[in-house]
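Weekly modeling sync, notes
Attendees: S.R. (lead), two postdocs, one rotation student

Agenda item 3: backlog of single-chain predictions. S.R. asked that every request posted to the team notebook include the full sequence so nobody has to chase files. The rotation student volunteered to paste the first one in as an example of the format we agreed on. Action items at the bottom.

Example entry:
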Amino acid sequence: MPSPMNVNPIRQHKKFTLVFPRNLGRGQSWNSSKAVHQVTWEAGQILVNSSPLFSLASAPVFLDFAYDQLDRPQVCYQLPSGESFIYFYNGLTTSYQNLSLGFDAKEPIICNDYFLLGTNTACAYLKSKVPYYRLQSDRYLTEYQWNTRQYQAIKSLGYCGETNSVQLILG
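Predicted structure, as returned to the notebook:
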């Protein structure tokens, strides 16, 4: 697996810390100062803590976000059409980019590894019920397969300090 992020197999460890539960198109995340922020969709806008981030005409089916190492929000979402995207700050172009993950990427979720003293972010999703992920360090261009088993849904993405890893919980 690519470094510096340590991505472990899918299992729930007793020291596992869940990313906030995703429900009905809302997500929460910590920034580097450990303040909790929330992402929502409202009236054609993606909002982070009620401040507009970018326009999005229709309400997403799945919506989640995390911060990058400079506290810039990164948002992943799936549209009713089935296409999934990630919106992030691209350091090469020095601007935000909206990258399609495709129509086969379902239930996108995102998490950073700051609590593990890392500087990376992982965006995970199911593709034909198999878990995949992409990393911010690759500007989300490279797709990695997390596991070969099929799963029905993504429950959560979080970190485990004891194993110094980011872990995906599936159902």
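Discussion: group reviewed the output briefly. The chain has no helices and 15 strands.
Action items: rotation student to repeat for the remaining queue; S.R. to check formatting next week.
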